[in-house]
Design a protein that fits this description.
Length: about 150
């Protein structure tokens, strides 16, 4: 698994969609599989914000430390983590939908295994990861569309 790309059209303003994915406090409310978030930095959003996320993956809990490495207000946010011998590099992009029907939310996740076991296992996880990403995007869509202005 090298790169996974998915997108959704969300019937909400770009600012609301961006805030849902870029602010981990909102993202953790939107995605029901996230059970706990612990901030590891004083910054809660923006470049340099670091946090530990615990989520349910199937029947198991997984905890990952993430850092925001890129942040352009109302356009894109990038999270990077090193977990299980793989660098997980995830970018959310928000832009007006070309058809004028709300906001297009795209997510690109690149997995770069750097340990032997991860090189063997990561490609086998592609469908599981793609399904989890799709569920996250669906949850973000519902949350952003029902958010109070």
């Amino acid at each position: 698994m090298r790169r996974t790309e998915l997108s959704r059209t969300v019937d909400a303003p770009a600012g609301v969609v961006f805030s849902t994915v870029a602010d981990i406090s909102n993202f953790s409310k939107a995605v029901p599989h996230i059970e706990h978030v612990e901030f590891l930095s004083e910054a809660r959003t923006g470049v340099g914000a670091r946090f530990r996320e615990t989520r349910l993956m199937g029947s198991r809990k997984a905890t990952t430390e993430l850092e925001v490495t890129e942040y352009v207000q109302d356009e894109r946010v990038r999270f990077v983590s090193d977990a299980g011998g793989t660098i997980w590099d995830t970018t959310f992009t928000v832009e007006p939908d070309p058809d004028g029907r709300g906001t297009r939310l795209a997510m690109v996740m690149e997995a770069r295994p750097h340990k032997l076991l991860a090189r063997l296992v990561t490609p086998l996880m592609r469908s599981v990861v793609a399904k989890a990403i799709a569920e996250d995007l669906d949850a973000v869509k519902v949350y952003a569309e029902t958010a109070e202005p």
